[in-house]
């Protein structure tokens, strides 16, 4: 320790001490250390008593300052909190007043508009009656208005009136004539009313007729009943509701025509409305002032008297008022009132749809000069009667907003003869509470919290300074964890040790002076003559990284290579997103198993997974641990592949792992540099890779070293010797073993079966069947036959996948309609009564429906402005169930005997169409990323010919792919014509199989049980017609043998893409741009499904070979059945080459030429050319394999001894010997003897044949 007196300490020097040191002093002091020790522990050289006292005083002053700042902050927090609370409260009160004023104003305005609409309508009815009487030369009061029931009911539907009646004014001298007139004419308009009710309201009409026929007791006694349905005299109610003739008076106003018609015959006709107290009063007002009059408030009790069922019981309590509207004899100024139009109105009609939906309730109090008051509550679009009187909350009296109903404009005040109404709007407690929230308290708390937070920040700052060392340590720990996740622990430690502190790193070299540079250059020339100069200048690891490489030898490990069998072929027919979905899902599942087994994951290389046991921590039973892991990984892969098939499509469940194990020493270390990683090297890695590559699918193949370790570990029953030896490059022939953790092994033949079922797909093309014991070969095939439940399960998974694909496209169709703000809604699909439009078949066959130009929708900007994400659309369960049932029926309708034209092939075509459709640029997706620039979207729409802008077009393409080979007979159309098949006669020998497929599938779709599904696909005639046209065009496009259809497609291509043949005479220069785009879309769609129908020829070699063999088997079966004259095996090789040259490759080139499929067109062309080359080299031998295997399956009897006829074993190598590889140059055929495209049609190329030209 330095001497305390060696350096004087003053306040200025003390101020230079960091605050962190002061805090350290306090911490140390709390632990009981002395002052000298404190200063010594901090490393400070000022240790005398004076400096210690000063430090303590300064620390005390800082603490006092902190307390003072804290108090000030608390005071400010309290003041600002109160101010904030008052401010926010005032804001809410102001907003509340403003919103209520707006609501009251809206209610007033809406009520006025509604009232004006009601009175305008009544005025229109009045004027129409006047005009009708004038034009018909009717003399008042002797008028009968035809169709009054219809006119009045329309008026009632607009005004909301319960009833509407005409009451003509009859003078006393006209009384007798009037009574005779009513006797003669009342029956006519009553019959008209009942006839209208019988058509519009048959239930009411039946009940009305029931009362008449059964003569049940009516609600009041009747004496003078007339068969005509009216009283023979002008009457009024007497004692006991008895109808009695009205006493003589100067004029009468009897009720006459009215709507709706009463439920049963009633003496309402000729009821004098001018003899009942209030009615007389209001009638006089109308006649005297010639203005409409609004009566006092009454209930709807009379409705139940004359209308038994039409009006609910609640109408008896709902407030009504009569509107008395004058009807004039003429339209001139000197007009006279000759009748009164009597409308019985509900008061709530004035308040319907006043408030927006979801608005909190508001009260409206109606008050009249007739001393009547009622209260309504408005809830959104409805108005509910609360009760009689002013029932508003007295707390809100000061907020009431009043207005008079005379503001309706047509309801002027009639002094002494009408009731004048006013309404007052009040808020409710619920409405008020929605505007008074907890925001004042929240804001106040937020402001106070900000001040308190400032105080806490100071406290935290002190704590953070004290904990700075722990923070650094925590950061180091996190770094250590990240490194540990990338490297083993011992490697991590080595890496951490080699990281130099910043101060120890070499400083940058200063640039030398010119003289020094010259001397250095001269010295370097002299040194260059030394032999060791180049070696010394080499940039080795020590010079690059400053340390020795990080590497170790691990003498006892077991390495696993797990490769995905069939992945390359599977990925060639999928979209990139589907490929990565599979890899990520599978690798994640394997990662979980690896972690559980405590095995080290090394890396993934493409579709190969590498793991190692016994590293970095030595493990005595590393071989057993890896064996268990390999077994678990195989099982997990099987589970995942089956689960993914419904999402990723057919053949996903056939993917499996081929695993190889080997034990031995490895060199492991970090290969430093850019993106450095931990890697393993050595012969053990090479042998493990050989074990994987020479292994078999769904098996764990291991070397003798690994097998010995497993046997030594007491698990000898897991080891099954492989009967044949394996040749490994650099190792020669090796004895290897299979892992079998099952309790027992099934013996030599069982093992052979397992091997045969798992042989690599790459091998079988050059193999054929040996002449070994035929019984063994038959047993082998029979054992390999998939169980029936597996076949059913596979079909079920295909159906699930197809439903998923079509369902996703249907969601896009629905989202598209919702985007266009159509009347369509998801809820409407649940309405079984709503039927979609039905297709009306025109006369003629389907060939007449093929069009040159499909009519696709135009570009619509609303699709981008109001975009609806299809992922947010949920189809009703009924639609999904119907879609699944439809796909299931179509799957069952496919011919199970066909090896090629099967439901599985239809799924393959759907997959190809889906992939190619996803390659077309979608203007919606691109434009939504680039913003609201619709011009760019329009350009993309034109570029893609609108194919991706219309979801119905895409759904129709998928549907056509699903049905295009439905119920295919397994022979070409030419064979059906030759056999005089009824279908050939029905379709006139043209595209027989294709037309039949459309007819059958369309018949299934049109069945009543699929009504909701059809309503989801199309909602109007235009959509139905477009959907049908696309389906017909695309399915018939798969018939490439029809010369007429081929010529039409050739013509469309010339028109659309300006081929070298020049413009056709019919190609008018005035053809609009829309037609040009649609023509291109039509020909591209047809080429798309043609390419998809034979997509296997433009996909991976394994995929092509699989479907080519299935097609061969189907054609050969037709030959064996006597339906074909020529053995297809005799010309299959040459026919394939010709088909590639004259159809497949030109088709792929045209897909690329149209320019809408992106990289997929180049991919298809590349695969087509590669497959042709492979076929030229190996095709002859493959045809022999096809034929021999067909005969083997046939020898097992009907159904192949349980073997699936669709070729489930076509990829299996079932031989012990191979045919010598016979390279031969394939001739360029001048003709093709026999071939079948996706429609299984035998082809013959003649000089004038253009069927292969796309």
TrEMBL record:
Q: Where in the sequence does UniProt note compositional bias of the Polar residues kind? A: 1057-1069
- GO molecular function ontology, one term from the record: 3',5'-cyclic-nucleotide phosphodiesterase activity
Which residue ranges does the record assign to the PDEase domain?
Answer: 802-1117
Q: Domain Guanylate cyclase, which positions? A: 558-692
The entry's localization annotation reads: Membrane
For this protein, the record's Pfam families field holds: Guanylate_cyc (PF00211), PDEase_I (PF00233)
- Its transmembrane ranges are 67-88, 441-461
Instruction: Tell me what this protein is called.
Output: Receptor-type guanylate cyclase gcy
Q: Show the InterPro entries listed in the entry.
A: A/G_cyclase (IPR001054), Cyclic_nucleotide_synthase (IPR050401), Nucleotide_cyclase (IPR029787), PDEase_catalytic_dom (IPR002073), PDEase_catalytic_dom_sf (IPR036971)
Q: List this protein's GO terms for biological process.
A: intracellular signal transduction; receptor guanylyl cyclase signaling pathway
Record key words, sorted: Lyase, Membrane, Nucleotide-binding, Receptor, Transmembrane, Transmembrane helix
Region Disordered: list its residue ranges. Answer: 29-50, 1056-1075
- Cross-referenced SUPFAM superfamilies: HD-domain/PDEase-like, Nucleotide cyclase
Spell out the GO cellular component terms annotated for this protein, sorted alphabetically and separated by semicolons. Answer: plasma membrane
């Amino acid at each position: 320790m330095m001497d305390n007196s060696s350096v004087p300490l003053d306040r200025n020097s003390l101020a230079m001490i960091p605050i962190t040191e002061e805090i350290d002093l306090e911490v140390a002091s709390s632990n009981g250390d002395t002052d000298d020790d404190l200063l010594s522990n901090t490393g400070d050289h000022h240790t005398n008593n004076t400096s210690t006292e000063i430090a303590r005083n300064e620390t005390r002053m800082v603490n006092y300052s902190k307390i003072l700042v804290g108090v000030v902050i608390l005071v400010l927090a309290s003041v600002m909190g109160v101010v904030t609370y008052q401010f926010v409260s005032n804001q809410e009160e102001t907003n509340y007043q403003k919103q209520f004023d707006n609501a009251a104003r809206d209610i007033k305005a809406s009520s006025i508009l509604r009232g004006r609409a009601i009175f305008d309508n009544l005025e229109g009815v009045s004027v129409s009656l006047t005009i009708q009487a004038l034009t018909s030369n009717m003399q008042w009061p002797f008028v009968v208005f035809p169709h009054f029931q219809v006119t009045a009911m329309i008026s009632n539907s607009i005004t909301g009136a319960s009833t509407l009646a005409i009451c003509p004014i009859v003078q006393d001298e006209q009384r007798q004539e009037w009574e005779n007139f009513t006797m003669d004419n009342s029956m006519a308009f009553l019959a008209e009313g009942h006839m209208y009710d019988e058509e519009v309201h048959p239930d009411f009409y039946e009940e009305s007729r029931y009362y008449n026929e059964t003569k049940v007791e009516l609600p009041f006694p009747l004496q003078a009943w007339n068969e005509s349905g009216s009283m023979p005299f002008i009457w009024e109610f007497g004692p006991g509701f008895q109808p009695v003739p009205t006493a003589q008076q100067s004029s009468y106003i009897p009720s006459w025509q009215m709507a709706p018609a009463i439920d049963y015959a009633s003496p309402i006709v000729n009821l004098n409305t001018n003899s009942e107290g209030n009615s007389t009063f209001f009638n006089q007002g109308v006649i005297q002032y010639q203005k409409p009059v609004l009566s006092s408030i009454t209930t709807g009790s009379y409705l139940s008297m004359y209308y038994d069922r039409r009006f609910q019981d609640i109408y008896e309590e709902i407030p009504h008022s009569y509107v008395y509207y004058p009807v004039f004899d003429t339209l001139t100024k000197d007009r006279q009132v000759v009748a009164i139009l009597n409308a019985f109105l509900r008061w709530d009609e004035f308040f319907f749809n006043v408030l927006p939906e979801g608005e909190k309730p508001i009260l409206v109090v109606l008050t009249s000069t007739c001393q009547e008051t009622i209260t309504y509550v408005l809830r959104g679009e409805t108005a509910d009667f609360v009760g009689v009187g002013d029932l508003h909350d007295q707390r809100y009296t000061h907020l009431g907003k009043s207005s008079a109903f005379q503001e309706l404009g047509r309801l002027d005040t009639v002094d002494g003869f009408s009731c004048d109404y006013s309404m007052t709007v009040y808020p409710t407690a619920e409405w008020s509470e929605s505007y008074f929230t907890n925001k004042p308290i929240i804001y106040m708390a937020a402001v106070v919290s900000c001040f308190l937070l400032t105080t806490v920040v100071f406290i935290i700052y002190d704590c953070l300074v004290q904990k700075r060392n722990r923070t650094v340590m925590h950061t180091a720990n996190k770094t250590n964890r990240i490194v540990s996740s990338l490297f083993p622990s011992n490697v991590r430690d080595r890496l951490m040790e080699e990281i130099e502190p910043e101060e120890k790193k070499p400083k940058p070299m200063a640039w030398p002076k010119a003289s020094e540079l010259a001397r250095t250059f001269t010295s370097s020339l002299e040194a260059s003559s030394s032999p060791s100069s180049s070696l010394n200048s080499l940039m080795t690891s020590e010079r690059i990284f400053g340390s020795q490489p990080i590497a170790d030898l691990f003498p006892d490990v077991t390495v696993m290579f797990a490769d995905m069998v069939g992945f390359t072929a599977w990925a060639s027919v999928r979209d990139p997103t589907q490929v990565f979905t599979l890899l990520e899902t599978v690798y994640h599942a394997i990662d979980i198993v690896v972690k559980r087994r405590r095995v080290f994951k090394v890396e993934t290389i493409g579709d190969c997974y590498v793991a190692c046991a016994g590293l970095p921590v030595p493990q005595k039973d590393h071989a057993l641990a890896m064996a268990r892991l390999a077994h678990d990984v195989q099982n997990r892969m099987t589970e995942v592949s089956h689960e993914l098939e419904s999402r990723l499509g057919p053949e996903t469940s056939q993917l499996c792992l081929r695993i190889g194990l080997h034990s031995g020493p490895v060199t492991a270390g970090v290969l430093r540099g850019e993106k450095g990683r931990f890697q393993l090297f050595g012969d053990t890695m090479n042998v493990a890779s050989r074990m994987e590559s020479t292994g078999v699918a769904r098996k764990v193949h291991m070397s003798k070293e690994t097998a010995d370790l497993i046997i030594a570990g007491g698990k000898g029953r897991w080891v099954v010797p492989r009967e044949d030896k394996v040749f490994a490059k650099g190792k020669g022939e090796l004895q290897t073993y299979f892992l079998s953790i099952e309790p027992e092994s099934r013996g030599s033949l069982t093992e052979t079966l397992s091997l045969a079922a798992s042989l690599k797909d790459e091998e079988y093309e050059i193999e054929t069947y040996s002449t070994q014991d035929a019984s063994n070969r038959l047993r082998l095939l029979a054992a390999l036959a998939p169980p029936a439940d597996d076949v059913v399960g596979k079909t079920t998974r295909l159906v699930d996948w197809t439903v998923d694909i079509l369902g996703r496209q249907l969601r896009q169709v629905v989202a598209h309609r919702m985007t266009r703000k159509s009347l369509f809604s998801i809820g409407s699909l649940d309405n079984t009564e709503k039927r979609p439009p039905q297709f009306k078949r025109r006369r003629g066959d389907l060939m007449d429906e093929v069009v040159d130009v499909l009519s696709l929708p135009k570009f619509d900007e609303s699709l981008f402005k109001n975009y609806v994400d299809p992922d947010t659309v949920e189809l009703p369960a009924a639609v999904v169930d119907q879609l699944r049932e439809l796909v299931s029926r179509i799957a069952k309708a496919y011919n199970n005997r066909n090896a090629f034209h099967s439901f599985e092939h239809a799924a393959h075509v759907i997959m190809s169409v889906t992939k190619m459709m996803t390659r077309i640029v979608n203007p919606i997706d691109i434009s939504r990323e680039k913003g609201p620039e619709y011009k760019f979207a329009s350009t993309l729409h034109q570029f893609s010919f609108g194919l991706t802008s219309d979801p119905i077009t895409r759904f129709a393409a998928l549907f056509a792919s699903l049905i295009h080979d439905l119920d295919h007979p397994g022979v070409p159309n030419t064979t059906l014509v030759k056999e005089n098949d009824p279908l050939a006669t029905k379709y006139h020998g043209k595209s027989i199989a294709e037309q039949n497929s459309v007819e059958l599938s369309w018949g299934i779709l049109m069945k009543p049980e699929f009504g909701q599904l059809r309503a989801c696909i199309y909602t109007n005639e235009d959509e139905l017609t477009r959907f049908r046209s696309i389906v017909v065009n695309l399915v018939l496009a798969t018939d490439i043998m029809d010369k007429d259809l081929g010529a039409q497609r050739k013509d469309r291509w010339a028109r659309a893409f300006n081929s070298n043949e020049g413009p056709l005479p019919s190609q008018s220069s005035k053809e609009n741009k829309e037609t040009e785009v649609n023509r291109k879309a039509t020909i591209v769609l047809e080429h798309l499904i043609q390419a998809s129908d034979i997509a296997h020829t433009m996909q991976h070699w394994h995929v092509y070979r699989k479907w080519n063999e299935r097609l061969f088997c189907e054609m050969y079966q037709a030959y064996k059945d006597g339906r074909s004259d020529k053995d297809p095996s005799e010309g299959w090789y040459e026919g394939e080459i010709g088909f590639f040259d004259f159809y497949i490759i030109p088709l792929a080139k045209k897909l690329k030429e149209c320019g809408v499929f992106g990289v997929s067109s180049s991919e298809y062309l590349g695969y087509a050319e590669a497959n042709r080359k492979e076929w030229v080299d190996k095709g002859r031998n493959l045809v022999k394999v096809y034929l021999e295997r067909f005969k083997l399956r046939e020898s097992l009897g009907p159904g192949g001894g349980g073997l699936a006829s669709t070729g489930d074993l076509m990829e299996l190598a079932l031989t012990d010997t191979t045919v010598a590889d016979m390279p031969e140059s394939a001739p360029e055929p001048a003709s093709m003897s026999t071939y079948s495209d996706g429609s299984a049609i035998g082809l013959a190329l003649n000089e004038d044949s253009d069927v292969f030209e796309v």
